[in-house]
Design goal:
The protein is about 85% helix and about 0% strand. With about 100 residues, it is mainly α. The longest helix is centred in the middle third of the chain and has 53 residues. The C terminus is likely disordered.
Length: about 100
């Protein structure tokens, strides 16, 4: 898998987790009371916490992948710039003429 595909998948995953977190936030317990309602609320909160943690991890991975993409582009630009100068004689041969 190339870096662009990885970034695309991370972005898709981030959006899916964001929607899941929003859904968990919007869930409201049924009108009944008692232990079942309390268990529902605990599970809803746990789902929100898991989504929040997952969202943070995916966001971090996405930022790292974007930094890597930038580093690769800078490296490619530096390589092509240096190759152009060296291929045309460059500064190293200027003193010999």
């Amino acid at each position: 898998m190339d870096l662009e595909a990885l970034i695309g998948r991370l972005e898709t995953t981030r959006e899916a987790v964001r929607r899941a977190a929003q859904h968990a936030h919007e869930l409201r317990p049924p009108s009944w009371k008692g232990p079942a309602a309390e268990a529902f609320e605990r599970r809803r909160q746990q789902a929100q916490e898991r989504c929040s943690g997952t969202l943070a991890a995916v966001g971090s991975a996405l930022r790292e992948a974007e930094r890597l993409r930038l580093a690769l582009r800078l490296s490619e630009a530096a390589g092509s710039g240096a190759g152009g100068v060296g291929g045309a004689g460059g500064a190293g041969s200027a003193g010999r003429w």
